[in-house]
Amino acid sequence: MSQIHDVVIIGGGLVGGLTALLLAQGGVQPVVLDAAPILDQTQVLAKPNPRVLALSQATMHLLEQAGVWDELARHMPYTGMQVWNQNGYGEIVFGQVSEREPIREQWLGSMVEPSILNLAIQKQLQRHVKDYRTQVKVTRLEQIPQGWSIELADGTVLQSKLVIGADGANSFVRNQAMIDLDILDYHQIAMSCAIKTTQPHQHVARQIFLPTGPLAYLPMYSLDAQAQGYWQSIVWSLPEDIAEEYAEMDDESFMKLVTQSSLHMLGEVTAVESRAHFPLKARSAQHYVKSGLALVGDAAHVIHPLAGQGVNIGCLDAAILCDVLLHDLARGSWAHEQTLRRYEHLRKGQNQAMMHSMSMIGWLERSTLTPLVWARNQGLKWVEQTPLLKDLFMQQADGLMHLKATRYV
After folding, report:
1. Average pLDDT over residues 8-34
2. Who's near 145: CB < 8 A, 6+ residues apart?
3. What's the CA gap between 33 and 131, in Å, rounded?
4. Does residue 215 lie within any of the structural domains?
5. How far, in Å, CA of 39 to CA of 53, rounded?
6. What is the pLDDT of residues 51-77, one digit of tens each?
7. HEC string of 91-141?
8. How far is CA 70 from CA 56, 240, 273, 322, in A?
9. What is the domain extent for residue 79?
10. 65-74, 206-215, 366-375: which has the highest mean pLDDT?
């Protein structure tokens, strides 16, 4: 008889790795199957990644719990957020400007390069997960009476009472489990790159709503001490035809375009690196769970990058799933179907609400109808002038409220 594992996690990135580490802390040793190789630390640290993830307070807290946060080689905290319309007077400002390196109590969150985050997660997985396998390809997933059978490309077959799919937007686990996917194509493309500006970011994340779509300036860490505070990672959501036109521009023309489109948000753009683009589609799995199987992170949902919350709601998935599983274990059970349904109940509605609200905001901000232009400007102004509403927005953004009923509070 082959060994039947308690849990196999397919995917070892941020959400899968966090899930594995939280379970290991709770006394459950998972098998982690990661398609990616072990990162070369020297290479990762030598070259900054132009893309950053905006980590919320809740995500930072969970990474601290899992021992990942202290392993981060670098990150850039932000203490303020500013959101406004190009063609209007509405504006919301959260937090504060910080001229110097802010103390921890001032942070609203922090910007971290994905490669730096993955490096830290891999180090912790190597320390705390006994069966952590990299460069693994899963070729088949089949439901069996004991749970699930997982076949690997090298012919290895594993059996597990529970499979957790943390393998991204094009999830093999989701497909093999025959869970249907709802897709909303925004017919937009997100352009991303790193830029250097003549004015410092002052630890503030900025987003301006343009008629074509939102343009975000996100503070990022610089390896050049002299340029620290002047580099931003930008994400610019654009209609497909306009994005294709901008993608063909040379760097000099693109820098002038960003400078002008941002209304000189931080002065002139003087350098640009690693321009890239990707299509924007919202995805939502019709079910997060089946008997003996659960989806987390992008395998379950992908939302518009408008508020940078995709990675954060994925980490909340990991925390809530681990909490209900470990609560189940304490009562002498494991991965009961009702427990998995409880996870789905706690997360699916919240995630869909976030997805639809991002879609609605994006549509509203692109509208040129006079009543809607007036309404969105008044709405931003009203929120800015109402402390209670601003507090509610901040509570939603920091994510800590979703951990209140868990062991990770």
Report:
1. 97
2. none
3. 9
4. no
5. 18
6. 999 999 999 999 999 999 999 999 999
7. EEEEECCCCCCCCHHHCCEEEECHHHHHHHHHHHHHHHCCEEECCCCEEEE
8. 16, 40, 28, 21
9. 4-183+282-403
10. 65-74
